[in-house]
Amino acid sequence: MIIAALIIGTLIVMMIKSNIEIAEPFDTGDVSSDSTIEYKSGLEKGKTPPDFELSTLTGDMVKLTDYRGKKVILNFWASWCGPCKAEMPHMQKYYEKNKESANVEIIAVNMTTKERGGLTGIKKFVDAYGLTFPIPLDNDGEVVDMYGVLTIPTTYMIGRDGTIQQKIIGPMDEKTINELVDNLD
């Protein structure tokens, strides 16, 4: 039985490995991150990402192309995600200090289809962390799918010209956010 279990386990691992797509790393410079990107249409470094239009908790509409000319931190998160909880205070502090002077916007797309507490849980999270940047709701999961988000938080750094310049997988602190935004064109 032990041998049979080992053989089955080995076969499962081999099947999983054969189904994983290899992703090309981004040049992260001095910033350490797990920066890889799936090559879905428009998600390559230097390419214009897919546009989307989503409603926020307050009912406002957020359309990515409306932010062309600004540096954009496009973040994907969920309220139950531990690393997202660690990252959000840093994002809010950065936003409060820099939204006017740095010509930068944070768009934090909530992965609403993956939420465990529904809209009530999202509102509690936003209130608990005092978030003031736009929180679009991806109610049907289409934007998450377009961007190939598998691990959260995932953040795309988008330059003023509307192209992707960096992809960060995992939480960022305020220092890292500052460095990444400073390096955006």
Shape: globular
Element pattern in H and E: HEEEEEHEHHEEH
* Count of domain modules: 1
The overall pLDDT average reads: 84
Please describe the biggest sheet, giving its number of strands, its sense, and whether it closes into a barrel: 4 strands, mixed
- Low-confidence stretches are 15-39
Q: The CATH topology, please?
A: Glutaredoxin
Q: What is the rounded distance between the termini?
A: 60 Å
Topology:
Blueprint: H1 2-19, E1 24-25, E2 36-37, E3 53-55, E4 61-63, E5 71-77, H2 82-98, E6 104-110, H3 118-129, H4 142-146, E7 154-158, E8 164-169, H5 174-182
Parallel strand pairs: 5-6
Antiparallel strand pairs: 1-2, 3-4, 5-7, 7-8
Describe the overall structure:
With 185 residues, this protein is of the alpha+beta class. It has a single domain (24-182), classed as Glutaredoxin, CATH 3.40.30.10. It contains 5 helices and 8 strands; from the N terminus they run H-E-E-E-E-E-H-E-H-H-E-E-H. The strands form 3 sheets. The chain has a 4-stranded mixed sheet with strand order 6-5-7-8, covered by helices on one side. A two-stranded antiparallel ribbon has the order 1-2. Strands 3-4 form a two-stranded antiparallel ribbon. It is globular, with a radius of gyration of 18 Å. Residues 15-39 have low confidence and may be disordered.
